[in-house]
Fold this sequence. Notes:
203 residues, alpha+beta, 14% helix, globular, disordered C terminus
Amino acid sequence: QSGRITFMAAAGALFTKAVARRVFARFGFRRTLLAAARTGHLGPTIFRSPNLGRPWKEAKQPPAFAPPTGDLPGRSVDHTFWLTPGHASESGSWYAGTSPQGLFRSEDGGVSWTPLPAVNDDPQFRQWMGTVQDGTPDGPKLHSVIVDPRDASHLYFGMSGGGVHESRDAGRSWKPASRSGAYAARRLLPMSASTATSMLRGA
């Protein structure tokens, strides 16, 4: 209901009745599936299956914000909204976008997740993110994480409030995307890697 998918027990799934936000299949690295869920007793978490659903296990370290730095207020992940597999050359890598708006990376196929401080703890980004009023009814979200198929270090993401941003150094630093860059990123979403590579030439 309301755009959510409820998963019942199937193929040995361990998260019966968990409300999944997004499910993305990756038919390469160990045929891994990831599912972001928000459950009553576990809270916001991520489940993973390395073999297409037999079985599912909860991540050992789901996305969680680091303790606040400076004068920034602390935040807690309400739910993971977006999951994107990393570059083909980085077989275990995944990116997650959350609400409140945050960006996280896994390098072990979704078992553990680390926050990216260049986004989550940057005062300018936190100002651009706004408040809970600057997003969808269930909270603003970081979404549309895109990895350039030509370059694992070239990333994009979008925010409910705050626009489209680009990194050329694997997420260590970010800048607002140019108009042409934002347009290229938006067009990448429904495309295959080969089509995206062709389209990005000259972007």
